[in-house]
Amino acid sequence: MRIKTRKRNIAAPLDPSTFADAVVQIYLDNAGDLELIAKSIESSDLNFSRYGDTFFEVAFTGGRTQPGTTKPDEGERHPFSIIDCEPTPVGHC
């Protein structure tokens, strides 16, 4: 008798660095244009439900983070992050 492994029991290993690099590339390809970035993200086949925290890190800081700091030596970064944007007064767009 042969024991078969069910497909639902096979877990793909987490790979947040590849996911982060793909999101950074979307930002770079669209030069920070948020409408184009949103369209590219929506049409991508990236697994946002699995890597939601990584997506937030990339959008907010421009790349992956570790507790207390960024990971400058791991993966590419983009200059269009929320932290790096120019502050504007509320009500002035």
Helicity level, as a percent range?
Answer: 25-40%
Instruction: Report how far apart the termini are.
Output: 69 Å
Largest sheet: 2 strands, antiparallel
The helix tally amounts to 3
Low-confidence stretches: none
Total number of strands: 2
Measured by DSSP, the beta-strand proportion falls in under 5%
Order of helices and strands: HHHEE
CA-atom Rg in angstroms:
17 Å
How do the strands of the widest beta sheet line up side by side? 1-2
Shape: elongated
Structural class: mainly alpha
Averaged pLDDT, please? 79
Domain 5MP1/2-like HEAT: 3-88
Organism: Camellia sinensis (Tea plant)
Protein name: 5MP1/2-like HEAT domain-containing protein
Region (Disordered): 62-83
Which SSEs are present, and which pair or pack?
Layout: H1 16-29, H2 34-43, H3 52-61, E1 65-66, E2 69-70
Antiparallel strand pairs: 1-2
What labels would you give this structure?
4% strand; 93 residues; two-stranded antiparallel sheet; mainly alpha; 37% helix
Describe the structure in your own words.
The chain is mainly α. It has 3 helices and 2 strands; from the N terminus they run αααββ. The protein has helices at residues 16-29, 34-43, 52-61; strands at 65-66, 69-70. The chain has a two-stranded antiparallel sheet. The mean pLDDT is 79. InterPro entries: eIF5-mimic_regulator (IPR051245), HEAT_5MP1_2 (IPR057397). It comes from Camellia sinensis (Tea plant). Pfam families: HEAT_5MP1_2 (PF25504).
